[in-house]
Amino acid sequence: MTTSHRNRERRRRAAWIGFLIAPALATMLLFVVWPLLTALSSAFYRWDGMARGAFVGFANFRDVLVGDHFAALTWRAFGHNLFVFAALFLVQNTAGFLLAWLIYREPFGYRFHRIAIFLPVILSTVLVGFLWKLFLDPNFGLVNQLLEMTGLGALRQPWLGQESTALPALILANAWHWVGFPALVYLAGMQRIPREILEAAKLDGCTGWQTLTRVVWPLVVPSTTITLTLLFIGAFNWFELPYIMAGLDGSPYGATDVLGLYFYRTAFGNQAGGIQDFGHGNALAVLMFLFIAAVATVITQYLRKREIAL
């Protein structure tokens, strides 16, 4: 094969590769890169409804973080997101790990249980939100009815109607919805552990709990990297479930307000105050994006280093 012929073959392959990549690249540019750049540029202007006003530099970012009107709401919503992340990590990931261990030990009907645990994950968030809103209804909800039937009627609560229980109720609903995902991720990690290691631990006299905490857990750390990173991103992008179950204002009295709801209210208005403020809303969106990207990168790099160390 001559050099000119090889060059023609390379150009032909490059043309085909470009032809195949072009639609995906155009889609990414149109629906991801362009909106991000638009949001970033809009955050540096003052807006009057849909009309862009004067260039204000970093004033919108300053107002969102330390301004008299916005700062208190921003940090309250940020604190709620932090609480959601910590609570979901403890409840959702821990429950997923324990469920994975139970299924890994292949109890009776474990194939059915493996499917049943993942079924809520494939349900629509809208459906899950309305379902749990009915479950938590203070008058005829399933939760209060079960408490009454089991003699625990004194624990009946208006779960979504009081500040102390509203956010934990949303976290419970979210954990029920998504616990199947970390369970299957951990299960996949456990199935990669050679049986000889577990048998050796058993011969050494390890109890079931010791095997789980000292042998299995260190070997499924890569699964934790995946679940923790996705959980962090999801917790700080939380919008659908709080919107469906608590409303756009984060009722009651802002107890369920998170950054996603606050951004939407700021940028597009709400029933109580229909004023649209794209400048401050986009500034908040850009700060959320930068924070999530930076922290997710740090988490991933740190956990990967721990994987190598282990």
Keyphrases for this structure?
310 residues, 2 strands, MetI-like fold, 72% helix, mainly alpha, 3% strand, two-stranded antiparallel ribbon, 2 domains
Give the helix/strand layout:
Elements: H1 3-42, E1 45-48, E2 51-55, H2 59-66, H3 71-104, H4 110-118, H5 125-135, H6 142-149, H7 163-178, H8 180-191, H9 195-203, H10 208-219, H11 221-236, H12 240-246, H13 259-268, H14 278-309
Antiparallel strand pairs: 1-2
Give, in order, the helices and strands: HEEHHHHHHHHHHHHH
**Strand coverage percent:** under 5%
Largest sheet: 2 strands, antiparallel
Q: Do you know the CATH topology of the largest domain? A: MetI-like fold
Give the N-to-C terminal Cα separation.
Answer: 51 Å
Strand order of the largest sheet: 1-2
Shape: flat
The top level CATH class name of the largest domain:
Mainly Alpha
**What CATH architecture of the largest domain would you give?**
Orthogonal Bundle
Radius of gyration: 25 Å
Low-confidence segments, given as residue ranges, are none
Description:
The structure is a single chain. 28% of the residues are buried. The longest helix is centred in the first third of the chain and has 40 residues, at 3-42. This protein has 2 domains: 1-33; 61-309, MetI-like fold, CATH 1.10.3720. A two-stranded antiparallel ribbon has the order 1-2. Helix content is 72%, strand content 3%. The protein is flat and about 70 Å long. By secondary structure, the protein is an all-alpha fold. The chain has helices spanning 3-42, 59-66, 71-104, 110-118, 125-135, 142-149, 163-178, 180-191, 195-203, 208-219, 221-236, 240-246, 259-268, 278-309, and strands at 45-48, 51-55. The termini are far apart.
